[in-house]
Structure formats: C-alpha cells, structure tokens
C-alpha cells in the first residue's frame, strides 16, 4: 500500500482530517492523564498500613475536663478489658486512616538548621506498639522504662521507633540507630527501626511521605487520653466494638462517645478512601465516554468518505483491486490520521500534566503511559474504521460504475 496517494487524498479533506486528528489528540491527552490519576488513586486505596488492621478498632471519647483524664483512662481501659474476646486495650493519640493528631516538622540538629520534613508522631501508651503489630527490623523494641510521664503536648525527650522510609529520608545510606530528631528543644532518639507505619492520611502528602512516621512512647495522662486502641481476634472485632459502645456509656457517663472516631480500622480505611473510589469511578466513566465519542467520530467520517468515494472504489475494483486492497486503504488512512493525532496528543498530555502538577501537586506523568495510550487509540481507530472499510470492500464494481 503506497502512502503518497493516501496523503494526497487527505489533503483534499483538510478540515475533516484536522477535526478528527484534534479529537484523537484530546482523547490521547485525557486518556494518559486519567489513567495516571486512576493508577495513583488505586495505589492509595491499597496502601499498606503497617498495622494489623483486621484485629484493631479505635474508640474515641471527649467532653471531659483534663483534670478527669487519669480517672477516665482508668475506667475506660478497665471496662474495655472486661469485654469477652478483648486481647489488649491501650491509649494511642492517632490511628491509620483516622484523625491526625501528631503532625509536626522536625530537624536533624538541635539548632534546627537541617529541616527533615513534616512527619507523623504516633504517641502511645504501654502495649500500643505491640497491639499495632509494628515489626522492628533493626535496633530494639520499646521497653517498659521507655514509657515516661509527660506534661506537654509530647514528651520533651523519648526513645522512639522510626519507619525505614523516614530513616532513609533523614539519613540516606546511614545507620539511623542512635541518631536524634528535634522539635524545637524536644529531642527524640531512634532506638529501633520498624518496617512500615503509614501516616493517618496517606495520599495527602505525596507518595514519598506516606511512611514518614515515628512511634513515641509515653504514659497516659492529660495529653494522652480519650483515644483507645482495642485489639481482638479478627472474627470478634466487630462484636467487641459493639459491646464497647454499649459499655462505655455506662462506664463513663460524664464523657461523650465520638461515633465517627469509634470504628474498626478496616471501616476507617473504607471511609477514608470513599471519595477516592468515587473519583476513580468517575474517571473510568470519562475515559469510556471519551473513547466512545472518538470511535463514533471515526466511524462517521469513514462512513461519509466511503459513500463519497463509491465511484473511485468501483473504478479501482474494475481495474483489478481486490477487497483486501480496499480494506487496507481505509485502515492505512485511519492509521495515519490517528498517528498524527497521537503525536499532538502526547504534547498535550504533558501540558495537561504540568497544569495538574501545579494546581493539584500530582507527580510527573511517567513516559510509559504514552505508548499505552497510543496502542489503545490505534486499536480503537482500527476497530472503528473496520465496519465502514468492510462496506467499502464489499462494493461490487458493476454497481459502482452504474452510478457514473
């Protein structure tokens, strides 16, 4: 199949060719970026938390004075531990996929000259690290003596566990054990490295910062109360949480149970990513609608050209062109139009990605999305033109010549 006759024919239909090319370019730009957004959303939805989600629940109460916190903690933990099936109850300020209550900027030096970034501090009482299921991969686990009373928002000094991601970010290629991070004058020394612990709001701070977490031990008190971590067997956790809701209103009638903050960790994940799932569905709908419109445009243009070229098709058939020759002509013509649209669409895809990076803090579009989008559009173009091309190839020479 010679390309020059096809290009000459397209030059005689510049406007129609340009419109279809622009439609394909727009489809390419939107398709690549929408697939990238979907992939990011799906990755966020399936993020690993680093905790034993199936066996954990969070219970939150408020509405009491700070002076009551010690008594409240004692009554709540005693009541929850009495529930059949409960394996442990501990106090923890934050939980993955729940409210964030320990976000802070840290430095790697006492003077604050080397800013390390914004991290999440999980402040927990005795038993909370074990209940979460944190896996220490280097150094040591926390010991009973590490849990000290404190009077500020956080302890002024403590031995902490740090995630491997955060340690590599703060001290690339170096051993983090024994090193310290600083929040103003508060110093925390790393005694153990844990495999992973996601921040409460993964996806909100970018992929790199999802695991920038530390676990800070402290004794429950005025600044560590009202938020409780319940551990039970995965088969019992829903029933245990139902019992906990009923018991807690009797155990601490002077406090208010926060229903939104009282959920299993699995339910917290489900609620946290609800908007992401809705957005993913909307993006899939946009892609399907856009591809359908593009396919209909190709079908319409090809059908119009087949009708317009019946005389030429008949003449070609009369002088020896086979059905395969006619079919190949229209498929090659479509391939050239789609290829031109894809070339422009790749430039538009990067332009659209730059806009998304500026206003929505998305990462740069990986290059491999471009060939994927190109293959999809090439396949779509060939499928869309197949029907009109087959009708053109079926035109008998005698019928075409009688229309002269």
TrEMBL record:
What InterPro entries does this protein map onto?
ABC3_permease_C, MacB_PCD, Macrolide_Exporter_MacB
What range(s) does the ABC3 transporter permease C-terminal domain occupy?
A: 286-396
Q: Where are the transmembrane segments?
A: 282-306, 335-356, 368-386
**Is Cytoplasm found in the keyword set?**
no
Keywords assigned? Cell membrane, Membrane, Transmembrane, Transmembrane helix
Topology in the lipid bilayer is annotated as: Multi-pass membrane protein
**Chief subcellular site?**
membrane
- MacB-like periplasmic core domain boundaries: 45-230
What compartments host this protein? Cell membrane
Family assignment from sequence similarity: Belongs to the ABC-4 integral membrane protein family.
Q: What is this protein called?
A: FtsX-like permease family protein
According to its UniProt entry, this protein's organism is: Dyella koreensis
């Amino acid at each position: 199949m010679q390309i020059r006759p096809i290009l000459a024919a397209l030059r005689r239909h510049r406007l129609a060719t340009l419109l279809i090319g622009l439609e394909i370019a727009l489809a390419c730009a939107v398709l690549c970026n929408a697939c990238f957004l979907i992939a990011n959303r799906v990755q966020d939805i399936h993020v690993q938390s680093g905790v034993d989600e199936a066996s954990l629940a969070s219970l939150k109460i408020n509405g009491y004075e700070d002076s009551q916190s010690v008594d409240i903690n004692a009554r709540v933990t005693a009541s929850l531990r009495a529930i059949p099936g409960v394996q442990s109850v501990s106090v923890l300020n934050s939980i993955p996929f729940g409210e964030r209550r320990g976000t802070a900027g840290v430095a790697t030096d006492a003077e604050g000259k080397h800013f390390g970034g914004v991290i999440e501090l999980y402040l927990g009482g005795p038993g909370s690290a074990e209940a979460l299921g944190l896996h220490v991969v280097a150094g040591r686990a926390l010991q009973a003596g590490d849990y000290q009373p404190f009077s500020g928002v956080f302890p002024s000094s403590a031995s902490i566990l740090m995630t491997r991601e955060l340690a590599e970010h703060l001290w690339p290629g170096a051993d983090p054990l024994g090193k310290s991070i600083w929040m103003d004058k508060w110093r925390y020394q790393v005694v153990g490295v844990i495999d992973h612990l996601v921040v409460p709001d993964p996806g909100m701070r970018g992929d790199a910062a999802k695991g920038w977490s530390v676990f800070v031990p402290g004794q429950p008190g005025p600044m560590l109360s009202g938020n409780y971590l319940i551990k039970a067997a995965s088969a019992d956790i829903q029933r245990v949480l139902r019992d906990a809701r009923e018991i807690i209103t009797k155990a601490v009638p002077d406090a208010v149970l926060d229903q939104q903050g009282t959920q299993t960790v699995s339910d917290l994940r489900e609620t946290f990513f609800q908007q992401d799932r809705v957005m993913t569905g909307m993006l899939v709908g946009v892609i399907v609608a856009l591809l359908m419109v593009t396919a209909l445009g190709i079908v319409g243009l090809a059908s119009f050209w087949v009708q317009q070229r019946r005389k030429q098709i008949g003449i070609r058939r009369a002088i020896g062109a086979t059905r395969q020759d006619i079919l190949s002509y229209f498929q090659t013509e479509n391939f050239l139009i789609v290829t031109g649209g894809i070339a422009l669409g790749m430039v538009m895809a990067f332009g659209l990605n730059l806009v998304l990076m500026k206003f929505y803090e998305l990462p740069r579009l990986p290059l491999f999305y471009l060939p994927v989008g190109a293959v999809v559009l090439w396949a779509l173009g060939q499928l869309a033109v197949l029907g009109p091309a087959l009708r053109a190839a079926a035109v008998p020479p005698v019928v075409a010549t009688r229309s002269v």
